[in-house]
Amino acid sequence: MRPLACCMSSYREEDEAQTRGQKHRVFTYEEIHAATSGFSASALLGRGSHGSVYRASLDQGRLLAAAKLPSLSSASSGSPSATDSEIDLLSSLPRSPLFVNLVGATPASGPSPRIPVVDFMPHGSLYDLLHDPLRPSPPFSRRLRLALRSAAALSQLHSLRVVHRDVKPANLLIDAKGRPRLADFGLAIRLPLPGGDVDRSLPPPAGTMGYLDPGYVRPVDASTRTDVYSFGVVLLEVLTGREAIDVEYSPPSLVDWATPLLEDGRFEELWDPRAAPADRSEEEAARAVAEVAGRCLTPAAGDRPSMAEVVTALRAANRRRLLRLALRRGVRRGGLLRSRGLQFSYHLFPSAVLFRTENTGVPALALRSIRSLR
């Protein structure tokens, strides 16, 4: 039987295996200055956690992005600057299709400020997709794929014991293939190893209003679960189309507005009217996403899921949606459902569907009632 190809934002398993210790290029300040037309306004892409980000045309037209602090760093004081810390952290991360990766930087020594150079993302951010009135609003199916891949990016970062601390749609940039990548590691910190001494040099709490974990009030409160809370807000934004803080609503806080709806199970009041679930399969998936968002926003950090658990839950929601899609298309015997991160065979019986998958975190064999899937 001809395979049925379906789209999903989950990344390929082979993409997870990345090499460490890769070399990064050393750029001169003059190269970056020329590549950005003197850091001109026409090359300005936006502003990050520590400065402005510019489009840089280097290497025979190759587009990259360069971040420049508004003033000289603390090199003169002898202490590392925020940019130095960001470059050091990015240099230690493996290249990943889920991150906006470091390409190189200007030297640490010298009179000029350090400038990190990273991959160029040509299609803006998740924030732009959700809120730019000049762009068509993505349908729910694509929003689910975007959310799933974003969760996978954060899960991979957490596996490296790194906390991002500024998770929000504006820091999920869209690459040339329309896939989100985690960006702006200016506030990111590396956690101490389990059982080790608490790092007394952890910086004070930081983040963006509307996304910041309310329980993150001391440096030692930093954990991967603070990012999980922020991602819960991102999921709400994906579902509702509302910004995290919007004074045109009462209450202005998206979390404060959505929490009673989540607690009462009034999920249909959360849907963005521009991208409401199109059918029963999408409605069920949207409810699952809302439930995951509610778990991420649990006040007690220890009761929140890990990002790996969030990925598993979102994958399950999308897998169930794909199965419903196959049934709705009238498939009666069986076949193969494939996407870049998911592949499973299935066989339909009179009252059940049997499917097999090799994906991590998914049962190798499962039997589901067709009645529950239609």
TrEMBL record:
ATP binds at residue 68. Signal peptide: none annotated. Residues 39-323 form the Protein kinase domain. It holds the Pfam family Pkinase. The keyword Kinase applies. GO terms for molecular function: ATP binding; protein serine/threonine kinase activity. InterPro entries: Kinase-like_dom_sf, Prot_kinase_dom, Protein_kinase_ATP_BS, Ser/Thr_kinase_AS. The keyword Kinase applies. Keywords: ATP-binding, Kinase, Nucleotide-binding, Serine/threonine-protein kinase, Transferase. This is Protein kinase domain-containing protein. It comes from Musa troglodytarum (fe'i banana).
